[in-house]
Amino acid sequence: MINRRHFLTTVAVGTASAGVLAACGTGSSTSGQTGSAENPVTINYTWWGNDDRAERTRKAIALFESKNPDIKVNGNFTDFAGYWQKRATEAAGGGLPDVMQWDLSYLRDYGQRNQLLDLSTVKINTDAFEKSLLPSGQIKGKTYGIPTSTNAFAVYYDPAKLASLGIAEPDGTWTYKEFNDFLTEVGSKSNGALFGGTDYTGVWWMFNVWLRQNNIEAFTSEGKLGFTKDDLKKWWNLTAGLRGTPAIVSEERVTQLAPKSPFGSNVTATEVTWDNFMAGYLGDSGAKELKLVPVPSDDPDNLGLFLKPSMLMVASAKTKFKDAAARFIDFMVNDPEVGQIFKTSRGVPASKTQRDGTTFEGTDKIVVDYETSISQYLKDAPEPPIVGFGTLESSFKRIASDLNYGKLDINGATDAWFKEAEDLIKQNA
Amino acid sequence: MTTMATPTQSAPDATAPVYNPKSESAGAKRAKSIAFHVAALILTAIVLYPGLWMIASAFKPNSEIGGGNTSLWSENFSLDNFVTAMDGIGGVSTLQFFTNSLVLAIGAVVGTILSASVSAYAFARIKFPGRGLFFGMMIATLLLPFHVVIIPQYIIFQQLGLVDTYIPLLIGKFLAADAFFVFLMVQFMRGLPAELDEAARIDGAGHVRIFGSIMLPLMKPALISTSIFSFIWSWNDFLGPLLYLNTPEKYPLPLALRLFQDQTQSSDYGAMIAMSVLALLPVLIFFLVFQRYIVEGVSTQGLKG
């Protein structure tokens, strides 16, 4: 039925129409339309998250609309993975929503392609923000994102599990050797019932913390790698003696437990990760209480810790309602009542006015107290990660798990990761 | 259903004597039959296990799902997950998600049946200039992965202001854009004897009459299998609604399901699985009611009509 000529005709027609369509893609942009109480403007706001966040956001929007009768906010939400598929399509089609909840790893990508509004051109109050935090929403002098909230790296532990093994609770002043000994102690005292933790050297951000402890930068300002193969080898060697012992949960086990984490499945006593995962771990594990202490460091004065925006607020570069969008962002990041609505479910509020206006209890208090306790050690927040950072982060994890499987030795793993990283950086340069 | 079950069960006994009737004793035949059934049951159990796991997990508390918990049934049996699932998300009730899915699925079935059958009739029975070319082009659309056309399509609907309506999701169905179904029906119609239309034509029937009174009734098996596939595909579609729908009140079930699983906060696996069970029911019922037509639809050549 189909011969070659017919097929080619079809392809030709298809290509031609795609060209026409691409030409249609550039939409018109007018600046700053405003509304009134009788005739309000409507802005679209979109976020990712679960039922709980949807409920909280609905309340925040209602509050905003009651305070700003000239603006209506149309809220939409999807899950995290679908969120980025949808944004990519909308960006290509020129139809990004006016205001969006954003993730740091996507900021540079969309910012560089001029999809996001430079928020320094509109009125948003950032006086209550830590000066060290704001650069993580900026690219080449333009402010694309305002952090709503922060998270920091921490070691989680389950006090009940440690008590049952007769192990004293850590206070968070420990060197890598002491931390490793601690993991080994948990593994050996529990006779294999409980592992010490997961292999923390597989976590990119922990590596980043360690580099900062050694005064090495992860990426240079030109977007190249700031560390050498030897640094990475040193890092992966830190737990070389623990792999395959009860100190570290085996990679097979981790895979079996997915999508839950070993810590959430009550298989390990500790976990090194972001402090805002608290609610998730409590829900998954059913534990009564989990505690947070700082990460290990060989230099007690330099913990390498920093606050990272756990999420940001951005606006579309093509929004017709710049003023309304800016007022909504300002409200979401600064208003104390919004802080009271979200508590720490977005992370610890980044703006001081919002943080001070919120009463934290229970779990929320643990997370906020942790971030307060480390405040003297905090360094500048990281710049928005390079384009393709997500791939780098996941290949870091994958290669580290190959280490744990014994498929690669440390030299092989280092070479493998460097090759992937350098290829990726070259592609996106 | 019952008419279908009887021949299947007696099938092994009926076929067993065909090969080597003399060398085997009755006992050996019996043993073979038992071994066959045991093996078939074991395989069925393996294949069905994920389904069973899903149903069992829907009744477990969230902390006992996955992770290190290997037991199928939980001692803390509860219906809480279903309560949470039916509660809805962000102020939208789960019933609303079901209704939306149903509207989309029924729309897809109606649209596909109407448009694909008419187009198939044209391709199979009417000789018009360029028929081969158009048929080839239609088949060529089958070769285009959905992902290739996403962005151009999105731009069209965006410029027409049709984003956040059901139109982008349904219009293709009413315009016979699903080449697979048109192809299925064309093949089916080609199997129907041309003498039937010729006889009708001699009696003075035009295309409309031939299509309505002769072809459609004969195509019942093809129409039914088209309905089943089109219903299930629409019911399970995630990407289309994700891209084209913005208002949560318009979301169908697959989008709602994902909202229970949140990477940045806590995931409610229990409610997600409970909702999966609920979401599966309509498809399962639809399939069970019409399943005996599926094979018929794909394989019959229409001669017995």
Automatic annotation (TrEMBL), chain A:
It comes from the Bacteria. Keywords: Signal. PROSITE patterns: PROKAR_LIPOPROTEIN (PS51257), TAT (PS51318). The keyword Signal applies. Residues 1-22 form the signal peptide. InterPro entries: Bact_solute-bd_prot1 (IPR050490), SBP (IPR006059), TAT_signal (IPR006311), TAT_signal_bac_arc (IPR019546). It holds the Pfam family SBP_bac_8. The keyword ATP-binding does not apply. Transmembrane segments: none annotated. Gene3D superfamilies: Periplasmic binding protein-like II. This is ABC transporter substrate-binding protein. It comes from Pseudarthrobacter enclensis.
TrEMBL record, chain B:
Residues 1-22 are annotated as: Disordered. Its main location: membrane. InterPro entries: MetI-like, MetI-like_sf. GO terms for biological process: transmembrane transport. Keywords: Cell membrane, Membrane, Transmembrane, Transmembrane helix, Transport. It comes from the Bacteria. Pfam families: BPD_transp_1 (PF00528). It is found in: Cell membrane. It is a multi-pass membrane protein. Residues 98-290 form the ABC transmembrane type-1 domain. GO terms for cellular component: plasma membrane. SUPFAM superfamilies: MetI-like. CDD domains: TM_PBP2 (cd06261). Residues 1-12 have a biased composition (Polar residues). The chain crosses the membrane at residues 34-56, 102-124, 133-155, 167-189, 210-235, 269-290. The keyword Membrane applies. PANTHER family: ABC TRANSPORTER PERMEASE PROTEIN MG189-RELATED-RELATED, ABC TRANSPORTER PERMEASE PROTEIN YESQ-RELATED. Belongs to the binding-protein-dependent transport system permease family. This is Sugar ABC transporter permease. It comes from Pseudarthrobacter enclensis.
